[in-house]
Amino acid sequence: MRITDLLKKESIDLNGVVTTKKETIEKMTLLMEKGGNVKDLEKYRAGVFAREEEGTTGIGEGIAIPHAKTDAVSGPGLAAMIIRDGVDYDSLDGEPVHMVFLIAAPNTEDNIHLEVLSRLSMLLMDDNFRANLMKASTVEEFLGYIDQAEKEKFEEETEEKQDKEEKKRYQILAVTACPTGIAHTYMAAESLENTAKEMGYTIKVETNGSGGDKNVLTAEDIANCDCIIVAADKDVKMARFDGKPVIVTKVANGIHKAKELIEEAESGKVAIYHSNEKGEATGFQEEQESIGRKIYKSLMNGVSHMLPFVIGGGILIALSFLFDGANAGTDVFGTGNPLSKFLNLVGNVSFGMMFPILSGYIAMSIAERPALMPGIVGGLLAKAGTSVFAAEADWIPSGFFGALLAGFIAGYLMLLIKKAFAKLPRALEGTKPVLIYPFFGIVLIGAIMVFIINPPVGAFNQWLYDGLASMGEGSKVLLGAVLGGMMAIDFGGPFNKAAYVFGTAAIASGQFDIMAAVMAGGMVPPIGIALATTFAKNRFTESEKQTTVTNYIMGLSFITEGAIPFAASDPLRIIPPSIVGSAVAGAVSMAFGCGSRAPHGGIFVVGIMDNAPMFLAAIAIGAVVTMFGIILLKKPITIEK
Description:
Elements: H1 3-6, E1 7-13, H2 21-34, H3 41-54, E2 58-60, E3 63-64, E4 67-70, E5 77-87, E6 97-106, H4 112-124, H5 127-135, H6 139-153, H7 159-168, E7 172-177, H8 184-199, E8 203-209, E9 212-214, H9 219-224, E10 227-232, E11 246-249, H10 251-256, H11 258-265, E12 282-283, H12 291-322, H13 338-352, H14 354-367, H15 372-384, H16 399-420, H17 431-469, H18 473-486, H19 494-508, H20 512-535, H21 542-545, H22 548-556, H23 564-569, H24 571-591, H25 612-633
Parallel strand pairs: 1-5, 3-6, 4-6, 7-8, 7-10, 10-11, 11-12
Antiparallel strand pairs: 2-3, 5-6, 8-9
Helix pairs in contact: 2-3, 5-6, 12-13, 12-14, 12-19, 14-15, 14-16, 15-16, 15-17, 16-17, 18-20, 18-24, 19-20, 20-22, 20-24, 20-25, 24-25
């Protein structure tokens, strides 16, 4: 392992001023911490002093190489200090020390500190090499002398071997994740990969998609990279990045600002991330996460885990009605034959997990694993609507809004419980996750939900349900237009997700027309753009025209994100027509009483929708409106352009 791979600029001091050996070691360990290799400074420092008690590391010739192998080290590292005036270090030759190299090694089977110690000692035997280091005036010059000496001294490290190692090393790592894990996740990954290639950097991107994590970053990848970019709108596993420079930003920046992200990642100014809460990752362009952004990420973490239950369960329930047409209009509709009864049972169990999963993973995002259990219990209580103030027949579920509140309350409640029991004796540490956290978590979230949340939120839920049920035709059409238009404002962003979540919550309340309007609004933008690229080819570039078939497929599959590349390149001529077309589709769908028990699926669930022909008509009308709007706003592209 090369010295220059371990020695970072921030861990080098060319003008150290110390007066004692103790002060020297204390200052050196602080330099090591700046390099991000130390998880527990005090424990590491104690390890260095313990090694000194076994025998001095002042090897003579004005050099000292203190070192420690300990669990307090997250990754191998070096720190260096030049002491112009010298310091009494109790060296073997009794001479003052002018040059100190400190080694940090993790407590693993491979004794990496011995390899580094041997390599350093061989280099430092050269008088000219030591003289060059002493006269270096800049950190870059200091590292340059080391690099040159290594290349000359260790000739067995041929160019072929170095090239091979370089190919295995990724300069930049990235993780992309969006709440649904369908489109934004992969679009951000592609943008970062293409941009890095254009800029001459090597990059590896892990995608946390709906089908699981792909291209997962290995421990070796993380140890050898320069910086890590986390472009995500939900929680990702961050503890593995401890001790590395990390930039945290929203997934949209991974799509639209890939060049700026990569430039910042390679600037050398990104702060070191610490998973032990002593530090935070750098926000993109020095913007730290706001409270609103953190709340949004926690909410989206719950939504992303909830969606598979809602979608799978919703489609099964819808199929149970499709296969039970003979009993339409009766009390047993949807369960009148064995197949329908099976589909309905399994679908309802899956769909019923919507609230506890939502609240559980919101809570877990805030306070990690201990908060999952009280969050789930809070969601179940929101679903049950229990109240000690009313007879069982009068219980009103607090539903989606109650589950939302339960998730956030359980998360912050668990943070308080952790803090309250932080100073328990070490012997009782094991009781926290199995006894203290579960007991107090359940008791407190239960009391809050039953006595404080459920009564008023349940009443609000009932008022909202009654209000939606009693809406006049005009009001419903307006609601459909608003929800449909929201689906096209940001194509998968917060507005889009807010409308979609409202639609899924409405299904749970039996309002199937709202979900149909939302789905119609979300399908229109990609289809409208595809129509425009089909019938007005002269207004689009060759690369844009090549996405026509893809946009038809994405639109018909209810993946609104297909419109993003067009909106990003020409927002003023793409977004307004898309909003208008989606609003028209939502209004038409609502006006004709279209209904969807399935919360996703697009064209593939049309067969189990209420008034399916008019639903298709609503999409067609909205897409045509979008197409004409784009054609009117966009001018033909000239050959020069």
